Amino acid sequence: MHSNNTPEEVIIIGGGPAGSASAMNLLRHGFQPVIIEAEHFPRFHIGESLTTECVDALNRLGLDGKLQALAAPQKKGVRIFSHHPENSFYVGAGDAWQVERAPFDNMMLDEAIQRGAKHITGQAVNIERNKGLWHISIQTNKAKALLKSRFVIDATGQQRFTQKQGLWGQLNAGDYAHQMAFFGQFENIKHQDIDMHDTLIFHRKKHEWVWMIPLNEKVTSVGLVVPVEDFKKSKLSMTDFLEDNIRSFSQPLEQRAHNMKRVNDVRAISNYSFSIDEYCRDGLFCVGDSHRFIDPIFSFGVQFSVVEAEYVSKAMLECSQCDESEWSSIHETYMQITTQAQDVIQDMLSYFWKHPWGFANMAHQKYANEFLEIFAGRIYEKEAGKGLTHMRRVLDEQ
Ligand SMILES: Cc1cc2nc3c(=O)[nH]c(=O)nc-3n(C[C@H](O)[C@H](O)[C@H](O)COP(=O)(O)OP(=O)(O)OC[C@H]3O[C@@H](n4cnc5c(N)ncnc54)[C@H](O)[C@@H]3O)c2cc1C
User: What whole-number distance in Å separates Cα of residue 17 and Cα of residue 85?
Assistant: First the structure.
């Protein structure tokens, strides 16, 4: 096993948006991070619709030009079509984008490396703490290696490396843990002029919905989310299940999808909704999906990853400037800020599924400005507004 005796300044496990954005933020604070990424990029990943705050966080990293170069379509808003037309609504998105994740994630990782992050292609397989340092064993295709550092970021997404290594308490099943998503890319989707640049969400019964995200002039990402049981009962292949459901889902969806032609293989993912309560200790921080993922319906996943990357790099800077005995309050602050923001989205989603009409009404009329802000992702270090307070009160009473 190759062992480097000099500790790394920061080890980041995972080179998706959380890992790459953490590296870029840390470089700005004067750290030299090393990113360990198991896969060769570009690699496929689902999650193409970005929020305004997500794009702002990317711009704060100076990535505006790189985003433009991806020639990704602009996202103007989110349009929700309910089975009951009175529950349908629209929320503008400000300045946001839809991105194909393979080139987007590749651009992010490349940029982190160009700016000075070290990069190892390999899989972290073990983590232990010894004499004030985290020891991480890595399996590359050639050999095993051991890296050490005071500071580690777990950015391993749904693979949850440190949680599976037993470093945190139990895994909490999320509210949408029994859902399954099926998705593929399609041509010949008939967008209407009015919603050409929107993320479209179609929902019918509780917890059954479809997304349409235009990726370029020809190709649209289409996904179906339903309870796992529905798929099991159907006895269909994933492809037939997705295509049959899309065709019969609802009239506004059928209008757009009747001539659709699939251009890649259908993929599926389940068990994606979870959280862990504690996700920092002793200079080790989880960022992005590695500690919590609620649900994809309103597209906040990449935002959580890249905004948490800002907070974690500030937290590490503070840790590096004080004694270890003071770290726990820095960990607490990081968890408090990031949990509070995720809770806003969790509560908004609970209300949306329980009271679709009330939600549409608040989004369009009663609390339109507040909803615009929440959908844009302005959910950090803020007092709850009247709309959110109302939603929470109603949820508490039930
Ligand atoms: C069905 C669905 C639809 C979604 N749609 C959207 C959307 O429209 N908009 C949106 O913003 N979000 C969406 N999301 C969420 C979004 O995809 C994620 O939140 C986002 O990718 C999280 O980024 P991350 O960097 O935390 O994790 P990831 O992007 O998953 O990156 C983790 C990286 O870590 C690497 N890794 C894992 N384990 C190891 C290891 N042991 N050693 C080394 N490397 C490792 C992996 O190879 C991977 O590259 C969706 C999610 C789902 C399930």
Answer: 36
The tokens describing 316, both together, are: 């590490």
Question: Structure tokens of 123?
Answer: 């899989």
For residue 43, CA distances in Å to 22, 46, 100, 182 come to 19, 10, 11, 18
Location of each CATH 3.30.9.100 domain in the chain = 179-270
Q: How far is the CA of 189 from the centre of ligand 1 (A)?
A: 26
Kindly give the interhelix angle for 327-354 and 301-320, rounded to the nearest 10 degrees: 170
Q: Is the CB of 17 under 6 A from ligand 1?
A: yes
pLDDT tens track for 283-316: 999 999 999 999 999 999 999 999 999 999 999 9
Model pTM score: 0.97
At 42-90, the pLDDT tens digits run 999 999 999 999 999 999 999 999 999 998 999 999 999 998 888 899 9
Q: Boundaries of CATH 3.50.50.60 in the chain? A: 2-72+99-173+274-397
Distance 343 CA to ligand 1 centre (A): 19
Token pair belonging to 227: 């309870």
How far from chain centre, in Å, is Cα 282? 25
Q: How far, in Å, CA of 16 to CA of 286, rounded?
A: 13
CB neighbours (10 Å) of residue 162?
24
CA dist list (Å): 105 to 108, 109, 220, 222, 347? 5, 6, 18, 20, 29
Closest C-alpha to 287, from 342, 344, 346, 350? 342
Which residue has the CA at smallest separation from atom 38 of ligand 1?
A: 156
Instruction: Evaluate whether 295 touches 349 at the Cβ level (below 8 Å).
Output: yes
Q: Is 157 in the pocket of ligand 1 (CB under 6 A)?
A: yes
Pick the CATH number of 179-270 from 3.30.1300.10, 3.90.550.10, 3.30.9.100, 1.20.1250.20: 3.30.9.100
Give the integer Cα–Cα distance in Å for 125 and 147.
Answer: 12
The angle at the Cα of 290, spanning 342 to 228, to the nearest 5 degrees, equals 80
Concatenated DSSP letters for 202-232? Answer: EE-STT-EEEEEE-SSS-EEEEEEEEHHHHH
Give helix then strand counts, H and E, for the chain: 13, 20
CATH number of 2-72+99-173+274-397: 3.50.50.60
